[in-house]
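Supplementary Note 2. Why include the ligand at all?

Several targets in our set were suspected to adopt different conformations when bound, so apo predictions alone were not considered sufficient. For every target with a known small-molecule partner we therefore ran a joint prediction. The input for adenosine-5'-diphosphate is given below.
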Amino acid sequence: MTPWPKALGLRARLTLWYGGVVLAVLLLFGTLSYGVLRWTLLSDVDSTLLVVAQVVRDTGYPRAPSPADPEARLRALLGPDFFDRFLRLLDPEGETEPGLPPIGSRPLPLSEEARGNARRGLPTFETVQAELGEPVRLLTMPVMRSGRLVNLVQVGIPLRRTREALDRYLRTLLALIPLGLGLATAGGALVARRALSPVGGMSRTARRITAEDLAERIPVRGAGDELDHLAETLNAMLVRLEAAFVHVRRFAADAAHELRTPLTALRGELEVGLRADRSPDAYRRVLQSVLESVERLVRLAEDLLVLSRASAGALARSGPVDVEALALGALDAGAGLAQGRGVTVRLGAAEPAAVWGDAMALERALLNLVDNAVRYTPAGGKVEISARATDGAVEIAVQDSGPGIAPADAERVFEPFVRLEAARATETEGTGLGLAIARSIVAAHGGTLTVESTPGAGSRFTIRLPRS
Ligand code: ADP
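The joint prediction is reproduced in token form.
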């Protein structure tokens, strides 16, 4: 199919399609009605022929006994013109019988087929060209006596009138079809224009909407039709886009803020160091402090990079990941972190199961949870890592006996740069990105990361992943 020219709008295309369909319907109906009319008219002619032929046969002409003069009676019945031109009586061989009244002064053709049918006692209807090429409908009917063919009666009716009637009908059709097509196309154009008029308004509104102004919405007319549905779908998309933009802006502002704090501290330390000549020891202390700030900055930059990669949803490597090994690795790392803090890290249930994904990324997500649990749990507390397989899913949980998280903060802690007051007071290390990174990684694997917590009694972070 040739593609539509680009310039042809939807309205023009709808109108053209509509016009095309209407033309096809009109042509179909025109052809059908012409055919039916032709057939009806010819059937009428054939029945008339049959009646006349039967009358001729049944009057006993030409052998009927006198005094009733059958020829005169027939002539009177059929009219002299018809009688002379379109009626013939032949012997079984198709010859005008000698001695019979000379009816049918101008010969009608007798085809081989008609002759053959007559021999079998069957009538034959044909359309033939008579004198001057005039089309004539012709019936050749056998006259049988005691099962023997004694005569042939030929009756014809000129088709001039029928042809004229058909021609008139055809001319009327040819005049009406373009008229109907024109009216239908104009109507179609009107309907298409009305139906599509809201689209113009929608695209004008959509053009006004920019990244800076996502608050505007496409008007919904309330007709409950497809266009309203489209407007609602686009509006829902705008709501999501707006939320995403707000999120990105806040993230950028938060990131800048988080970067500024250590940079300001760094500048302060350097300024203090440069203010006066100092002993090598004092310089070392300054440099040590500067190094700590730089390390914090590097950590933050790395975390930001990991978060942006995880948020993009792309997994670096994919393959089967053994959950039991993951839990054991986290146990080792947790035990290392807990050293000197008086926190016990242990392994609970560890069922063998596999998930599909990026082993290193999952390790990082789990490690972030263990790291938090160890850091926020006071001395004497416990951290338990467990992995179990359920129907179609694998759950890896990190349970601690730490301070817990208030229900109001339970969702907030997964947002980037959110650090609760208690954490800020006790732990200066955190960047506030650990849980956001963990959740992004788990989400990229098609899983969920949730927290259940009782303030004062500890928290339980659970990673749920689909089983491979
Ligand atoms: P951070 O670098 O501050 O640890 P996270 O994103 O890992 O950042 O955690 C966000 C905040 O959630 C923490 O600052 C802390 O307030 C809270 N939080 C995380 N894990 C725990 C936990 N196991 N117990 C109590 N609070 C926690």
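Confidence is low (pLDDT under 50) at residues 99-105. The radius of gyration is 51 Å. Comparable summaries for the other entries are listed in the accompanying table.
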